[in-house]
Specification:
The chain has 15 helices and no strands. With about 425 residues, it is mostly helical. The chain has 2 domains: about 1-205, no CATH class; about 230-420, no CATH class. Helix 1 runs antiparallel to helix 10 (about 250-275) and helix 2 (about 35-70) packs antiparallel against helix 8 (about 210-235).
């Protein structure tokens, strides 16, 4: 079992690297090929895509991972058909909204939103198949799917670089979406499942206890990030906001590892919870300690980075990013420490506790970031983020330990009832 889990984790890192490479390629090409105004329009469309992706995962694919990972194959296949069918309908609705907004806005920003609206179903359905493969333990299938997406992208971007396709934001987004569309079609063949097209209302109703809270948690976190980013630009200036963004780019590879951990470990933790809540708690601690160690090592590497490499990576933005790397390193250590607890709560289906923890951390993030920026510019904002991240780690683990304690108590009560009636004992209730 441990060997299989290690293999899935290794393939998960490969898959996340490919997925991140896809987003990196399109962003890098946009930065190098588009004029500042068009790049701004592309950045807006990409930010909207991230919002759509978060909503799709919260409403459809995360409930699939929590509720169906440990089920029998027939039940899992039925859940996967409904989840992907729900994403198909939801992505069409969200894409239509983007299309209408783009036509209403007009100009370069509107054209980018129109292009995103056209390809949004392909992007979100491809991501849904990734979640299906992770939840079913077929991580290599997810990696192959993302490889096809990246390969198609490279080919289309090569045509663009060679002049066969015009260099514009909408064309770039369309090419990116075409690659995802190939992955979405490949997902049908890989899974041998046909999405259930009319399942969205029933899916949302059946999993409303998870969907609403997962979506609320994502929207609250994303809203806080955008609010703080805007506030830093207003209070400390755009240069301070740029310095923080540059420092975060230095920690980009570490962010990839943390994101990969989230996608790979959630199905594993659900399997742990189905087997034993004590196994889940132990593996959650192991995951957090491991990611904390990785974060410390990467932070030390970044702090020891020669100025020549920093200037090569960030150009003139290095001078603003370098002084705040220590604070960002602490922030990333806090994020790594939180991973085991956040995923553990999801694996237990404790959406109420997860939302409560997130809402408890957001005020600290907002106040810390904005107050720090007002007092000490970029360095103060980064210090506020670091304090919020460390506080968040404490909050997440407090909620996770409380949830584990409740499950142990429920298991003991169930075990005593089992003794009374001669029925088999279970260590924890099913999530």
């Amino acid at each position: 079992m441990k060997k299989a889990a290690s293999a899935r984790a290794a393939w998960g890192l490969v898959d996340q690297a490919l997925s991140s490479a896809s987003n990196f390629f399109v962003s890098a090409l946009a930065a190098h090929s588009l004029a500042p105004r068009e790049f701004g329009a592309f950045a807006l469309a990409f930010a909207v895509y991230l919002l759509l992706l978060g909503v799709s995962r919260a409403l459809c694919t995360e409930p699939l991972a929590v509720r169906y990972t440990a089920q029998e194959q027939d039940m899992f296949d039925a859940g996967a058909r409904r989840a992907v069918g729900s994403v198909t309908v939801l992505s069409s609705l969200l894409g239509g909204a983007c299309l209408a907004a783009g036509l209403l806005v007009g100009d370069s920003a509107g054209a980018a939103l129109v292009a995103l609206g056209v390809v949004a179903p392909a992007l979100l359905v491809q991501d849904a198949w990734r979640y299906v493969f992770f939840a079913s333990g077929r991580v290599r299938s997810a990696a192959l799917n993302d490889f096809v997406w990246v390969a198609a992208q490279v080919g289309l971007f090569g045509l663009m670089a060679g002049g066969a396709l015009p260099r514009s934001g909408p064309i770039l987004i369309t090419a990116w979406g075409i690659g995802a569309g190939l992955g979405a079609v490949l997902g049908l063949r890989q899974s041998r499942l046909v999405p259930a097209g009319r399942s969205l209302p029933g899916w949302l109703r059946e999993h409303s206890d998870l969907c609403g809270r997962f979506a609320g948690e994502f929207i609250a976190a994303a809203g806080a990030v955008h609010l703080v980013s805007f506030g830093i630009g207003v209070t400390a200036g755009l240069a301070a906001a740029g310095s923080i963004r540059g420092a975060l780019l230095v920690f980009g590879p570490l962010s990839v590892i943390l994101m990969a951990a989230g996608v790979v470990l959630l199905p594993e933790f659900v399997r742990n919870a189905h087997f034993s809540v004590d196994v889940l708690a132990r593996n959650a601690r192991l995951a957090s300690w491991t990611l904390f160690g990785v974060s410390v090592v990467w932070g030390l590497v970044c702090l020891a980075m020669p100025a020549s490499i920093g200037r090569h990576l960030l150009g003139q933005n290095w001078s603003g990013a370098r002084p705040i790397l220590p604070q960002i390193a602490v922030m990333m250590c806090g994020a790594g420490t939180s991973v085991g607890a956040t995923l553990g709560l999801r694996a237990l289906g404790e959406a109420r506790r997860s939302l409560r923890a997130r809402l408890g951390i957001i005020p600290v993030t907002i106040v810390g970031g904005l107050l720090g920026a007002a007092v000490w510019d970029a360095a103060g904002a980064a210090m506020g983020f670091a304090a919020a991240s460390v506080t968040g780690a404490v909050v997440w683990w407090r909620h996770f330990r409380a949830a584990v304690g409740e499950w142990r108590l429920a298991a003991e009560i169930q075990s005593m009832k089992g003794d009374d009636v001669g029925t088999p004992q279970f260590e924890a209730p099913a999530p």
